[in-house]
Design a protein that fits this description.
With 385 residues, this protein is an alpha/beta fold. The chain has 2 domains: 56 residues, DNA polymerase, domain 1; 291 residues, TIM Barrel (Alpha-Beta Barrel). 33% of the residues lie in helices and 18% in strands. The protein is built from 12 helices and 14 strands. The strands form 3 sheets. A 10-stranded mixed β-sheet has the order 3-4-5-6-9-10-11-12-13-14. Helix 1 crosses helix 2 and helix 10 packs parallel to helix 11. The N terminus is likely disordered.
Length: 385
């Protein structure tokens, strides 16, 4: 699919259809080129064009992806006469940490980053007994306009580059490797594209980041694709495109409602791609990749947590067969200050789970972290701004 801007939206039954690609404001400077934006061959070619030895690209990549070095003085295998030029060409500064807040006895660390142009984004490092997960942003802001989401209410500022996305993971990996997180030195095992932004609306950069994460070291971080989750509110053409990439990441569909009437309100892109179209694209992803899809469902009191909606959701998912293609992840809503959207009553949440499980749908309730540190995505950036 082309990345060219889509035509102006049309309307159906008085409802405005949202465009598939939310264009960034024109005239913005692009982030500096970084080795994480490039393949291994492109890094070598760049240095050769600059009159530098091409093999130095692998050495610099080793420092960045394998050794997790961020101080050029530690790159002692690079000639002192070339070190500054190599670092400037391949490792420009991409983002500066403004604030890092901790919760859960230091095992949850939320960082607010300032990008080169002043845009603010967030990432979260969460350490569990059996894994360490980094939740990354893919856009500064978001154009999807979901009313219960702090990021969505701020609008889209710009897409992030592949390297800006990857740097969030590398920063988390550095913190773990250096023992800055309780539990001793460790490594990142999982990455979830569930931070600020709609990943599928920045498809090229997101796929580039996924490839850098799974590329074998030292060309990338050498992660397993099965440890990576890419979320979407339902950009159907991009979901279908992801199914053909040959990278077995987990797809997470932020559904939040099983019927068009309510989902049109909660997830405005539904006016373009209906519940039926969106869920079918998710099922198609599972069919092609043989990877189970996660259905994300934020539980909102009195809005989408009724028992009959649980039944409707179960019937909808079962209509594609019972071969284990899907899993429902219920998310207790992390409300933003002053918002009318609040978390469901625990008894309603339990009944929702019971009804889904009665229909044979595997269901879990997400372990929410970081409520005391503006845990909902976008809250910290909005506060700082």
């Amino acid at each position: 699919m082309s990345d060219a801007p889509t035509p102006p939206p049309t309307t159906t039954a008085g409802t405005t259809l949202l465009p598939l690609v939310f264009d960034e404001p024109r005239g913005r400077k692009k982030p500096p080129r970084h080795l994480a934006d490039l393949t291994a061959d492109e890094r070598t070619a760049l240095l050769t064009e600059m009159g530098l030895p091409g093999f130095r690209a692998r050495q610099v990549s080793t420092h960045y992806f394998s050794r997790l070095v961020d101080d050029p003085a530690e790159m002692t295998d690079l000639p002192a006469t070339q070190r500054d030029e190599l670092v400037k060409a391949l490792l420009p500064d991409l983002m500066t940490p403004l604030r890092t807040l901790e919760a859960d006895k230091g095992t949850t660390r939320k960082t607010l980053w300032k990008l080169f142009d002043g845009a603010l984004v967030e990432s979260v490092l969460m350490r569990y007994p059996d894994r360490a997960t980094v939740c990354v942003s893919s856009q500064a802001g978001c154009g999807m306009a979901c009313p219960f989401c702090a990021t969505g209410q701020g609008g889209l500022q710009r897409n992030m580059s592949t390297a800006e996305i990857v740097e969030q993971v590398v920063a988390g990996a550095r913190s773990l490797a250096r023992g800055e997180v309780p539990g001793g030195p460790g490594r990142v095992s999982n990455v979830v594209f569930m931070g600020m932004g709609e990943p599928m609306a920045n498809y090229k950069a997101v796929i580039g980041a996924v490839r850098r994460l799974v590329d074998p070291t030292p060309n990338g971080l050498g992660m397993s694709a099965r440890g990576i989750t890419v979320s979407t509110v339902g950009l159907v053409p991009r979901m279908n495109q992801l199914a053909e990439e040959g990278i077995p990441v987990t797809l997470a569909l932020s559904l939040h409602a099983p019927d068009d009437e309510l989902r049109n309100e909660l997830v405005p892109i539904n006016t373009r791609y209906s519940v039926a179209e969106t869920v079918e694209a998710a099922w198609n992803y599972a069919r092609i990749t043989k990877r189970r899809v996660s259905i994300e469902y934020a539980m909102m009191r009195g809005i989408n947590d009724q028992a009959d909606r649980a039944d409707l959701l179960g019937d909808l998912l079962n209509s594609y067969g019972d071969w284990g293609w899907v899993h429902v992840n219920l998310i207790p809503l992390n409300p933003t200050p002053g918002s009318k959207w609040t978390a469901s009553d625990p008894k309603d949440e339990r009944e929702f789970v019971r009804r889904l499980e009665a229909k044979g749908i595997p269901t879990t309730v997400r372990d929410t972290r970081g409520r005391e540190i503006d845990g909902a995505c976008g809250q910290l950036a909005a506060t700082e701004a």
